[in-house]
Amino acid sequence: MDVIILLTILISGTVFGSFFTLAVHRIPRNENITYVRSYCPKCNHKLYGFDLIPVLSYIFLGGKCRYCKDKIRPRYLLLEIFSGLIFLLVALSHNIGIESSLYEFIEISFIYLFLCGVFIIGGIDKENLIIPNGLIIYELVVGFGYIAFKIFNKVSVYSNIVGLLAIPLLFTIINLLVKLITKNENKLPFGMGDIKYIAVIGLFLGFSGQVVAMLISLLVTLLYLIIKRIKEIPFGYYLSIATAITIIILPHITEVLEIINFIIV
Ligand SMILES: [Zn+2]
């Protein structure tokens, strides 16, 4: 029975994956994302149900547009498979199966909703070096929904509130100090988009999860700087990768989280 649940999650992940590529493409252009029907970027032909099944369409159509026979970039296929696998990994690491309680099912649903925003923010920041406010608001809504659910179930949300406020406040103060000293507004250490993103990550993962995500993102950033030698740093992109990793490992690092939490109690 677990197989059916996990398979459903894997397939949902690929469906969301094809939505992510659409959202990453359209949100920075202010195009509507609720109108899901897509079009071929080459011949502009509308794509219908059969053209839009994740992974399978690509295989059946031989990686080509049905109308103009232009090659579809395999990147889309890879992204769909990739997000399906991430969804599956999250379910496996959180031990989701037929035995899971209603609480666990609702909690994992919140995690997936949050993860969707993380994917889209990462993709947009990588391509455009911006984190749209609309997505921060989306993550805030998901985060506060999750908090309300925890309060309703008498689970402490202290760490989440500290996560929302402490580090973002610290970074804002550092920014203000640097601005006072250098009198240069364009060379601040932390971007506003990054600070807001770190705040919603703290709200959702709690203070300790947020610290872990930031440490991993520093590692990821360093790796990229060394391997790829890029100049401009889409920090939100690395933060997204780190947050996805953190969500996967979170249930297995409770001792680490407790140690970090000692700072705030
Ligand atoms: Zn076409």
Q: What's the story with the biggest beta sheet?
A: none
CA-CA gap between termini: 42 Å
Strand content of the residues, in percent?
under 5%
Number of domain units? 2
Unique ligands: zinc ion
Order of helices and strands: HHHHHHHHH
Globular, elongated, flat, extended or rod-shaped: what is the shape?
A: globular
Mean pLDDT: 90
Number of DSSP strands? 0
Q: Count every helix, treating DSSP H or I runs of 4 or more residues as helices.
A: 9
| Oligomeric state as shown | single chain
State Rg.
Answer: 20 Å
Short description:
This protein is an all-alpha fold and 265 residues long. 69% of the residues lie in helices and 0% in strands. The chain is globular, with a radius of gyration of 20 Å.
Characterization of the model:
The chain folds into two domains: 1-100, no CATH class; 121-265, no CATH class. It is 69% helix and 0% strand. It has nine helices and no strands. The termini are far apart. The site of zinc ion has 8 residues, from loops.
